[in-house]
């Protein structure tokens, strides 16, 4: 099965470059931007050998997983561009629900039909700032890189990795893959759904003007909302309850004493793990 854009993405004018093997799809996107690529351009592979994750960590992607980067060229506004990570999270969530509907909701033995019914739990959740969780394990991650261009423009490489055939080992957090759940879904099928979902959601985002809608949708699918969290920022750890994200996508945590803190970047740990790591 070869990579292809979904019909919504095609009609919106997106382009696609697929590689059998490449060092980093993010790097290819940035190089293209330096060569005056106008953006709306996907770079994809199932064999990425030199990807980078959060804080410059190696982004290990076993062969068969999806590594995709969307290049967007926008007016130079890094704060607004950073909110594209939430668009990507929603697009991934929507794509995964499309290709594997059974992943969305787990129904316990005592469950009955209906929203909020006992025993029903949404298995897919979005973790601030840029992960997709399935049953609490990391299924996908998002990493943004940006570079200033001439003419007051900003190139944004939105890197997306999905554990399709395998989850990386030796991580400091639980991870899972579609194959581990017995799902025979290939990376190109996930990508078709992702490209369609992104094309629709970025229209809602509308250069950042529609971020209030994106924020609302994201919060409806957020992991740990209202629950205890510990956020590591450098060497400091701030504990409290995950209250919301603000109008810029920053995490808002409220301590037991009522102190509210807004965090632009950090590593989040939930529940009992938050207590231990704090």
TrEMBL record:
Keywords linked to the UniProt accession: ATP-binding, Biotin, Ligase, Nucleotide-binding
GO MF terms, alphabetically ordered: ATP binding; biotin--[biotin carboxyl-carrier protein] ligase activity
SUPFAM superfamilies according to UniProt: C-terminal domain of transcriptional repressors (SSF50037), Class II aaRS and biotin synthetases (SSF55681)
Record bears the keyword Lipoprotein: no
Matching Gene3D superfamilies: 2.30.30.100, Bira Bifunctional Protein, Domain 2 (3.30.930.10)
PROSITE patterns, per database record: BPL_LPL_CATALYTIC (PS51733)
Protein name: biotin--[biotin carboxyl-carrier protein] ligase
Source species: Kaistia soli DSM 19436
């Amino acid at each position: 099965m070869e990579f292809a854009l979904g019909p919504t993405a095609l009609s919106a004018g997106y382009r696609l470059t697929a590689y059998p093997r490449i060092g980093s799809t993010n790097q290819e996107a940035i190089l293209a931007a330096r060569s005056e690529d106008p953006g709306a351009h996907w770079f994809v592979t199932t064999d990425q050998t030199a990807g980078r994750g959060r804080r410059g960590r190696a982004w290990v992607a076993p062969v068969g997983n999806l590594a995709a980067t969307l290049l967007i060229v926008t007016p130079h506004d890094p704060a607004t561009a950073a909110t594209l990570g939430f668009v990507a999270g929603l697009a991934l969530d929507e794509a995964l629900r499309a290709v594997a509907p059974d992943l969305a909701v787990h129904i316990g033995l005592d469950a009955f039909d209906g929203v909020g019914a006992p025993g029903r739990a949404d298995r897919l959740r979005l973790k601030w700032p840029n992960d997709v969780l399935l049953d609490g394990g990391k299924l996908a991650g998002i990493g943004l890189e940006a570079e200033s261009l001439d003419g007051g423009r900003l190139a944004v490489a939105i890197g997306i990795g999905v554990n399709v055939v395998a989850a990386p080992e030796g991580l400091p957090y639980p991870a899972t893959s579609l194959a581990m759940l017995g799902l025979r879904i290939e990376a190109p099928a996930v990508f078709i759904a992702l490209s369609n979902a992104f094309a629709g959601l970025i229209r809602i985002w509308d250069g950042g003007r529609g971020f209030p809608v994106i924020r609302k949708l994201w919060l409806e699918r957020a992991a740990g909302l209202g629950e205890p969290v510990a956020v590591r920022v450098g060497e400091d750890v701030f504990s409290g309850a995950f209250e919301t994200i603000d109008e810029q996508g920053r995490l808002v945590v409220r301590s037991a004493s009522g102190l509210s803190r807004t965090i632009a970047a950090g590593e989040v740990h939930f529940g009992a793990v938050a207590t231990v790591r704090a």
